[in-house]
């Protein structure tokens, strides 16, 4: 069985001391190890941001793409090769700012991939500007008098747009996060795991203690993850409590399962020798 070390490259992470990415990365590797996934059967697609520099720190197939485009790369890989375990990995700015339309599209199509979003409520690689999930009133480099916007709600957005696995984890709760990542990978369909991540360098407001006071495990309250209305209620309450765990899960055919072209054989294993496109070309004359 592969160990966490097998998924680790020789490059040393450049994250700041105390960064939540130092918890999320080992939780992800532990999930891979517990699921006994071979390194050559995993592909991770990253965008741009502190967390996306993780592309260099994993030993598996990875793409360090362009800003907000982790998802389309992951979707392409999964549709070409259904046998790969495919994850996309972004920060909150990358996922819900530059990549918002891809986020909604992927939730709607329910492609069978897992999306890990490191949500520290800031653009931290560029030194701490407001991001879509920055809280109202939050003072950042770009909002010195406090943000005037309501924060974006990724969990509710994913649920109402068709994602079939929606969860939230916390970088300060590694064992719980590991289990969520395992469940997300095992889920058949688009799995969003929004990970509340501390950024001790630039986010002095949403600290470890701040999250500890406000987070709770949905397993400890009687939450029915299969009830869509209850899931939406849970993530739209205005009571400052932040649920951790699987918020919503549903079972429906994935995008790939509905494609007759890959019903019998995954695309990369199909021969291209006998493909005849002359009829299609005729139609364009
Ligand atoms: Fe982590 Fe924040 Fe440092 Fe980026 S700036 S590496 S998110 S602590």
Report on this structure.
With 285 residues, the chain is α/β, with parallel strands linked by helices. Helix content is 29%, strand content 17%. The protein has helices spanning 21-34, 70-80, 92-98, 100-109, 154-160, 174-186, 208-214, 228-236, 278-283, and strands spanning 42-46, 61-64, 85-91, 114-119, 122-123, 129-130, 165-170, 191-196, 215-217, 242-249. The strands form two sheets. The chain has an eight-stranded mixed beta sheet with strand order 2-1-3-4-8-7-10-9, with helices on both faces. β9 (215-217), α8 and β10 form a beta-alpha-beta unit. α1 (21-34) crosses α6. The longest helix is centred in the N-terminal third of the chain and has 14 residues, at 21-34. The relative contact order is 0.13. Bound molecules: iron/sulfur cluster (SF4). Residues 15-16, 19, 21, 50, 120, 124, 199-202 line the site of iron/sulfur cluster (SF4).
Structural class: alpha/beta
Secondary-structure element pattern, one letter each: HEEHEHHEEEHEHEHEHEH
| Residue share in helix | 25-40%
**CA distance, first residue to last residue:** 56 Å
Taking pLDDT < 50 over at least 5 consecutive residues as the criterion, the unreliable ranges are none
Query: Rough shape?
Result: globular
Count of helices?
A: 9
Number of strands: 10
Sequence of strands across the biggest β-sheet: 2-1-3-4-8-7-10-9
Small-molecule binders: iron/sulfur cluster
User: What fraction of the residues are assigned to beta strands by DSSP?
Assistant: 15-25%
Mean pLDDT equals: 96
Q: Note the main sheet.
A: 8 strands, mixed
User: Radius of gyration, rounded?
Assistant: 19 Å
